[in-house]
Amino acid sequence: MLAGKVVLGPMTSTAEVAPTSPAAAAGGSTAPSGAAGQASGAPALPSASPSPTPAPTPVLVPDPLDGVLVSPSLARRHVVAVMIDDLWAARPQSGLSAASIVWQAPAEGGIPRYMALFSEGSPPAVGPIRSSRLYFIAWAAEWNAVYLHVGGSPQALAVLDSSQGAGSVVWNADQIRLGATYMWRIATRAAPHNVYSSAKAMQELVKALHAPASMPYKAAWQFAADPPLDQLPMSGSISVPYPQNVISYAYDPATNSYPRTVTSEGREVDAGTGTRIAPHNVLVIYMSFGPLNDGSNKGRLEAQFTGSGRALVFRNGTLIKATWKKASMTAPTLLYGPDGQPVTLTVGQTFVQVVPIGTAITYKLGQLPGSGTSPLPSGAAAPSPSPLGLVGDWRLVL
Predict the structure, then answer these.
(1) 3-class DSSP state for residue 290?
(2) 354 CB contacts (<8 Å, ≥6 apart)?
(3) Cα distance between residue 312 and residue 283, in whole Å
(4) Where are the alpha helices (DSSP H) in the chain?
(5) What confidence tens digit (pLDDT) does each residue in 155-181 have?
(6) Which residues are CB-contacts of 151 (< 8 A; sequence separation ≥ 6)?
């Protein structure tokens, strides 16, 4: 079965029957045959029913963004990045559950913002769509993404309105310039929290911008399948604070995922599908932020998105204290463990929580079944005070 079509080979017979003579075919007599002296007028043996050649097993390959097995055409589909609002009036958002990777980072006024990266996912609704920031462009540039937004900071627009926004870095898809064909305003929410799109419109937009429909993507991260349930801890939690809300994750071993909660919203559910948002990987990336000083008096920020820094990688109910590295605007954000080797994530969605250096992350690692011990990282000590704060089952400040 490929692309919804069944391909059958030539029809073949599984048995052969001796041909009858012309006389027999005409109903005449022939000499007895065989030891039983069967009369020639006996009916011919029926031939076996032909068997169709089995359809080939579909070829599946890992999606480069999340490791999920998909068709080769989906694995090459041009990635679409969408800026998504996170003000209280924008919740619950639509489309986040279908994204392969979701970045969340500070934007302005203490309010963070999302950028959802869609590869194989096809959400019926995505939004509310909001304005661009340069550091989000840098993360979208890792996939040469078609980048949906509504305006942006002067710093971001300077990039998007140049040749960098015409495909050399990303493909600029600004709703202000494009109009309502691919991103439109809905009547049930107040502006500016009411611009939405859909999977169908996003794919039409790829064509309209003359961006390649197919891309030779290579995975930036490596993935592995879920471990057996009896090797997973029984619980766990993560708390990531932003000035206007706190993001909490409660580890669920049954699904090997991290169901998400937002303080002002509660259990986070995709408004477009009703799906509970529960990524398989949660990354916390510590980054230097400072005021943009663009003359707008809006409190916009800039971030040091290249270079390297500290990171926490939560997957399979465990923690890896890692390092992130990004060499340039278009280079991937890579993750390395304490041994210097690339970190392996679990197949499935990843949420990336970007926080300013100094943010206190609270987490608790669950006990392994029957062990009575927490799955601390290799070489980690028991929780104790340190210049970086409390580590292990309590708090980490970087």
Answers:
(1) strand
(2) 103, 104, 105, 106, 135, 285, 287, 303
(3) 6
(4) 22-26, 72-75, 134-140, 154-160, 175-178, 199-208
(5) 999 999 999 999 999 999 999 999 999
(6) 131, 132, 157, 174, 175, 176
Q: pTM higher than 0.85, yes or no?
A: no
Q: Which two tokens stand for residue 86?
A: 């996170």
- Domains detected in the chain: 61-208 (3.50.90.10), 222-397 (3.50.90.10)
- The token pair that represents 313 in the structure block: 């990688």
143: nearest Cα among 115, 184, 182: 115
Residues paired with residue 313 on neighbouring β-strands, in sequence order = 283, 320
Is residue 352 within 8 Å of 100, Cβ to Cβ?
Answer: no
Using DSSP bridges, classify how beta strands 350-356 and 281-287 pair: parallel, antiparallel or unpaired: parallel
Nearest to 258 by CA among 188, 345, 171, 138: 345
Convert the pLDDT of each residue in 121-131 to its tens digit.
999 999 999 99
Indicate if the pLDDT at residue 394 is higher than 60: no
Report which of 102, 271, 116 is spatially closest to residue 189, judged by C-alpha positions.
271
DSSP per-residue string spanning 70-136: E-HHHHTBPPEEEEE--SGGGPSPBSGGG-SEEEEEEEETTEEEEEEEESS---S-BB-B--B-HHH
Backbone angles phi, psi at 112, to 5 degrees: -75, 175
The pair phi, psi for residue 154, each rounded to 5°, is -55, -35
Give the integer Cα–Cα distance in Å for 85 and 130. Answer: 5
Q: What are φ and ψ of residue 199, in 5° steps?
A: -60, -45
Strand partners, 226: none
